[in-house]
Amino acid sequence: MFKLKFLLPLILFIVLAIFLAIGLGLNPKDIPSPLIDKPAPAFSLPILATPDKNLSTQDLKGKVWLLNVWASWCVSCRQEHPLLLELAKLNLVTIVGLNYKDEAPAANMWLQQLGNPYTVSIMDKDGRVGIDYGVYGVPETFVIDKRGVIRYKHTGPVMPGDIEQIFLPLVQKLNQEPA
Amino acid sequence: MKKVLLLVLSLLAFPLSAGVEYHQFDDPNKEQAYQNLISELRCLVCQNQTIADSNADLAKDLRQQVYEMLQQGKSQQDVVDFMTQRYGDFVMYRPAFTLKTGLLWLGPSAFLLIGVITVFMLARNKKAKAQITLDKQQQTRLNDILQKGEED
């Protein structure tokens, strides 16, 4: 009884310290998306390269695809860009670029200068589709399976190592799932 | 001079407030609903501001979204559902009471309760300790001391 009385504050302190340490390590910008394991919100948006044609979620059924939200005004998009180019070279997955609240000439210029990792880019000029996907910080990357269900969301720029450790294993796993 | 400077500065500050967009409502109830909602929804870019307070682009888009939904005749709850489906409970400054947010709501009162109980128990312990009965020797000594005090 005597010992417990003196140990209790220490135990409480340790528990508190552990919680605070975990809290310090968390990224407050990383808000869990309620869309995981939910059907990807439907869209039909003009294609950046051919604005008279639309791409819709229906066109992507049966494919594993990434939706990468980007914009020419987005600074950290430049940071992840080389990694996306590398991923595109592997030719393993369809990468759809959601050009978020951007102007077509600026977006096209950006792709010309830095290279185009996207299978196709679509224009979300007023950011409506962005709202449907719960986009709050560009860049964001979603992984969507063959049935059109969102399986993973990455907020912020893709970091070195993320492709090998997160995206590729997930894409490979999803590719093996039945359509 | 100071007064003139202040006057000039306040004149310069005026155009800043003009940056906020204006939404026209025909129904005062809808306007009230709009005001309620935008001061309840969190701006996810600048997380400690509501979308009413924030000048971020996303906050502007979300205000527009709220406005349009209300104009279409959607209820406040519809708008809240729309937002939480996309951004999660975090988008609400006062999230709904669910199993997931239970600790958030009950945590503070639980800790307060633990504190009150602790204080109560400590106080009771002290009281118990205070009621020590003196043995014969101590009682005579106490009496001696008290008597001495009287003689002084």
From TrEMBL, chain B:
The chain crosses the membrane at residues 102-123. The keyword Repeat does not apply. Residues 7-146 form the CcmH/CycL/Ccl2/NrfF N-terminal domain. GO terms for cellular component: plasma membrane. GO terms for molecular function: metal ion binding. Residues 1-18 form the signal peptide. Keywords: Cytochrome c-type biogenesis, Heme, Iron, Membrane, Metal-binding, Signal, Transmembrane, Transmembrane helix. One of its GO terms (biological process) is cytochrome complex assembly. InterPro entries: C-type_cytochrome_biogenesis (IPR051263), CcmH/CycL/Ccl2/NrfF_N (IPR005616), CcmH/CycL/NrfF/Ccl2_sf (IPR038297). It holds the Pfam family CcmH. The keyword rRNA processing does not apply. CDD domains: CcmH_N. Possible subunit of a heme lyase. Belongs to the CcmH/CycL/Ccl2/NrfF family. This is Cytochrome c-type biogenesis protein. The lineage of its organism: Bacteria, Pseudomonadati, Pseudomonadota, Gammaproteobacteria, Methylococcales.
